[in-house]
Specification:
single chain; about 190 residues; alpha/beta; Nucleotidyltransferase, domain 5; five-stranded mixed sheet; about 40% helix; globular
Length: about 190
């Protein structure tokens, strides 16, 4: 029996606040267009595609690792753990995993790490979209609690506005204390 391809991608690796999120997707027979790397789509298009992917795929799973755990593990290990948890969230066992990036995840399933897989494999593109939409919602919800940080605009990435807010208001629990801009506040 032919193995099903699982695409896995993570988002939030370069952020200085919020979780790192990974998604794993097994696409079905129905074509979902236009699939692209999530970074190449508008927020509205990503949202609509995420809904369509979830409705038409065979399976998907989302996993997140908190900013506190990112600090404990380091971002690389946290990203790999999120991807592993997303893969483990799938119930289908006849799978082959394709991960976007340099590093394979530790798993009992066949796994390939491919640089730029999110621009080659539809499954990884779909995972990229689902993970990005999920994480963006987490950051928008966080903005409701902490509007002074403008998380709804920069999603936790170190933009000029975010760095200014960080200096003005200090860090909160959702900031990654091990990341330089946050760490420098406490030095």
């Amino acid at each position: 029996m032919k193995k099903l391809i699982v695409g896995i991608d993570e988002v939030g690796r370069g952020s200085i606040a919020g979780p790192v999120v990974a998604a794993a997707v097994i696409l079905g027979k129905k074509d979902i267009l236009p699939l692209k790397d999530s970074k190449l789509l508008s927020p509205t298009k990503r949202f609509l595609l995420s809904k369509e992917i979830k409705k038409n795929c065979l399976a998907f799973s989302i996993a997140e690792i908190s900013s506190k755990d990112v600090d404990k593990l380091n971002i690389k290990r946290a990203s790999l753990l999120a991807m592993k948890k997303a893969a483990e969230g799938l119930k289908n066992k006849n799978i082959e995993i394709i991960v976007d990036g340099l590093d394979k995840i530790e798993t009992i399933y066949p796994c390939k790490a491919i640089i730029k897989a999110d621009s080659i494999f539809k499954e990884v593109m779909a995972a990229s979209i689902i993970a990005k939409v999920y994480r963006d919602k987490v950051m928008i919800d966080l903005n409701k609690k902490f509007p002074e940080y403008l998380f709804d605009k920069h999603k936790g990435y170190p933009t000029k506005e975010h760095l200014h807010a960080l200096k003005k208001f200090g860090s909160i629990e959702e900031h990654r204390k091990s990341f330089r801009p946050v760490r420098q506040l406490n030095e």
